[in-house]
From TrEMBL:
<keyword id="KW-0804">Transcription</keyword>
<dbReference type="Pfam" id="PF00440">
    <property type="entry name" value="TetR_N"/>
</dbReference>
<keyword id="KW-0238">DNA-binding</keyword>
<dbReference type="Pfam" id="PF16859">
    <property type="entry name" value="TetR_C_11"/>
</dbReference>
<dbReference type="InterPro" id="IPR036271">
    <property type="entry name" value="Tet_transcr_reg_TetR-rel_C_sf"/>
</dbReference>
<keyword id="KW-0805">Transcription regulation</keyword>
<feature type="DNA-binding region" description="H-T-H motif">
    <location>
        <begin position="45"/>
        <end position="64"/>
    </location>
</feature>
<dbReference type="InterPro" id="IPR011075">
    <property type="entry name" value="TetR_C"/>
</dbReference>
<dbReference type="InterPro" id="IPR009057">
    <property type="entry name" value="Homeodomain-like_sf"/>
</dbReference>
<dbReference type="GO" id="GO:0003700">
    <property type="term" value="F:DNA-binding transcription factor activity"/>
</dbReference>
<protein>
    <submittedName>
        <fullName>TetR/AcrR family transcriptional regulator</fullName>
    </submittedName>
</protein>
<dbReference type="GO" id="GO:0000976">
    <property type="term" value="F:transcription cis-regulatory region binding"/>
</dbReference>
<dbReference type="InterPro" id="IPR001647">
    <property type="entry name" value="HTH_TetR"/>
</dbReference>
<dbReference type="InterPro" id="IPR050109">
    <property type="entry name" value="HTH-type_TetR-like_transc_reg"/>
</dbReference>
<feature type="domain" description="HTH tetR-type">
    <location>
        <begin position="22"/>
        <end position="82"/>
    </location>
</feature>
Amino acid sequence: MTSQAADGPETVVASRRSKISREREQEFFDAVLEQIRECGYEAVTMDGVAASTRCSKSTLYRQWKTKPQFVVAALRSRRVSKFEGIDTGSLADDLREVARAAGRWSTGDTKLLQALGHAVNQDAELATALREALVHPEIAALSEILQRGVERGEISADQPALEYIPCQLFGVIRVRPVVEGEYADPDYLVRFVDAVVLPALGLT
């Protein structure tokens, strides 16, 4: 009886101490991803994230046992498309809105991809989480936008350029920093859509 009474409260206290709010958890996730962008994956430590978020290192280790687990969780917390809600009623205007949305986040996400490059090649789970966070939601949302254009009769379902649109858009975002030394901002991407994507689809 004494043992049960002692174990019960201690277990409850430990459980309470291990819980953090969703908002606080997101602070940790934002901090680790920002440090990766700025310093590179290898330079980021649990100590550094703890210091920047004013928490104890033990708090982080209690939630995520290793840095890779922590980073994977942070990436997976972002699985929401930036293209969510885009539906202007016109495929051409939808794609221009996609370009504007992509341009607003392309700098941060491109830096993150670059910073995670080597680590992703070494860690399959990290690579999967990266695709789930930064690629799959956007491809799915873009595919829906294109499908609506087909359903409205703006383009035909057998339009040969359809399958290449995601690679066109995401490719230019990733490649421009390498080729021109600048990130693809909203203005650049809208011009790219008007000059390249829409003509490929037979739209203006």
